[in-house]
Every structure is written in structure tokens, then in C-alpha cells.
Amino acid sequence: QVQLVESGGGLVQPGGSLRLSCAASGSTLALYAMGWYRQAPGKQRDWVATITSGGSTTYADSVKGRFTISRDNGKSTVYLQMNSLKPEDTAVYYCNAYSVVVRPRYDYWGQGSQVTVSS
């Protein structure tokens, strides 16, 4: 079992920055791939970024070059640094984790953190 708690959301002006954090507990984070998803009002939940247990990263085209995902296994925390924010980045951001050794895949989710980009 893994529990995920996001923090760091809020209101920011276009062009600004925010950093989201996701604190994990209940298992060894090093054995999990971690990711961020987001869901805007009236839309489906979309994938944003993933960092593997080995530290490799991938990003959705919409955030590539502006967002950076990172992890600190010692602190059991994953981060999403968001720069050059745009109004279309407004959404609830969810932290995601799944074990790289357990099959079938089971996804864990945090409760979500609201990010609003507006002037």
C-alpha cells in the first residue's frame, strides 16, 4: 500500500512558476515509477510526466521544456517544477505511483492539488 499526498498548488499569474510536491508513505519509493496527471474542469484526466525508478523522465508535449519532474527517494518525495505557466495549465494535479515489480499494474493516486493560472 502506498499513500500519496500532494502539496504546493495555488494561484499564479501567467508566466509564473509553482512547484508541486508529492510525499509518499507505506512502501519503498525506489521500487515505484512516479508521475503527474492533471484534470481540467469538464475534461478527462491527462498524463503530464513520468519519472521511472531509474530516474528517466518523459513529458507530454504540452509541458515539455516548461515542466520538470524529479524525485528524492531518501525523502520519499516527487516534485513537479512548473515554469512559464499558461492559463491552459489550470487543473487539479494528481500524483501517481505504480510498482515496477508487481503485476498486474496497480495505480495509486493522491487526492489532488489545484493549480490556477490567471491574471
Give me the number of helical elements.
0
Class inferred from helices and paired strands: mainly beta
The Cα radius of gyration reads: 14 Å
The helix fraction, in percent, is under 10%
Shape: globular
Element string (H = helix, E = strand): EEEEEEEEEEE
Mean pLDDT: 95
Main beta sheet: 7 strands, mixed
Give a brief outline of the structure.
With 119 residues, the chain is mainly beta. The protein is 0% helix and 53% strand.
Secondary structure blueprint with pairings:
Blueprint: E1 3-7, E2 10-12, E3 18-25, E4 32-39, E5 45-51, E6 57-59, E7 67-72, E8 77-82, E9 91-99, E10 107-109, E11 113-117
Parallel strand pairs: 2-11
Antiparallel strand pairs: 1-3, 3-8, 4-5, 4-9, 5-6, 7-8, 9-10, 9-11
